[in-house]
Design goal:
The protein is mainly α. The protein has 16 helices and no strands.
Length: 305
């Protein structure tokens, strides 16, 4: 259905297209991309790279989000969290959404290729396709481990930010990817526990649907321990220092506490509380990286490839 065929009440506005881009999710991604840029060098990042690099990454991430809305429109109609999304509700037609996705994705790629570097552009494209095609079209419907495997695409922004500045792959940038990769399952499974009935109604094989709540909660707890261990690697490799170490340990122990509470408590709101904390955790953890980076001079051997 095109916008021309929609009723007057259903016609889309710029707000609907803005919502299609999942601005809150993209904002968190750009925060990690920005910090990846700042961590890549001891001094200031060139203003052009800072602005245009994050713009290109954001446009491509928004494009992937639009495709996600488009592919999941029938699922979204069955879930209370998503039934009012623009495509699911009919305010934006599928063709218009697809054109919009290609337009902003193509613009994002052009910005990265012309003003940043080819490595960042192709890594961004791989991330876009990983989320929009591999995860959304296949993994989400195929396996309860969908978010574990597909989480790699969403973990790429700090690497993209790093390569935008340096033009090279670096082991420390990959550590940032590893942290988000380990963070994604407990973050998303906490939401999935809270929305278990909705996922079951939509026939999406999320872990709480296929293996039950207790099994999922145990795995959330296990992953928070893995996340704590992984989050200490930037200190272990000499990338970051004592400020980061102490902060990462405190934030990680609190996350473990939330996971334990989910496992032992019968209160229905613990899953959503854990989900909300997971977002705060990631923002604070990356903020600590920045504080530590500018407090201490860059020391230690940079692990490169």
């Amino acid at each position: 259905m095109s916008d021309a065929m929609l009723s007057k009440d259903q016609r889309s506005s710029w707000v609907d297209y803005w919502e299609l881009c999942k601005p809150n999710v993209v904002a968190l991604m750009i925060l990690t991309s920005l910090i990846g840029m700042l961590l890549a060098v001891p001094g200031a990042v060139p203003l052009q790279v800072l602005l245009l690099g994050n713009l290109g990454i954001a446009l491509c991430a928004g494009s992937a989000a639009v495709v996600n809305h488009l592919v999941d429109r029938h699922i979204d109609q069955k879930m209370a969290r998503t039934f009012n999304r623009p495509i699911a509700k009919g305010r934006v037609g599928p063709v218009n959404a697809l054109v919009f996705a290609f337009a902003i994705g193509g613009l994002g790629m052009a910005v990265l290729l012309i003003y940043i570097n080819a490595l960042t552009a192709w890594l961004t494209l791989a991330s876009l396709l990983g989320y929009a095609v591999v995860y959304t079209l296949f993994l989400k419907r195929a396996t309860p481990q969908n978010i574990v495997i597909g989480g790699l695409a969403g973990a790429a922004p700090p690497l993209l930010g790093w390569t935008a500045v340096t033009g090279t792959l670096d082991g420390h940038a990959l550590l940032l990817v590893l942290i988000i990769f380990a963070w994604t399952p407990p973050h998303f499974w906490a939401l999935a526990v809270h929305r278990q009935k909705e996922y079951a109604n939509a026939e999406i094989p999320m872990l709480p649907v296929t293996h039950g709540e207790r099994y999922t909660k145990i795995h959330i707890l296990l992953y928070t321990f893995i996340l704590l261990a992984v989050s200490l690697l930037p200190f272990a490799t000499g990338m970051l220092h004592l400020i980061y170490l102490i902060g990462a340990m405190v934030l990680g122990v609190i996350f473990i506490g939330y996971a334990i509470l989910m496992l032992v408590s019968k209160k229905p709101g613990t899953g959503m509380a854990t989900f909300r904390y997971s977002i705060i955790y990631l923002m604070l953890l990356f903020g600590l990286m920045l504080i530590d980076h500018y407090t201490f001079p860059m020391t230690g051997h940079m692990v490169g490839f």
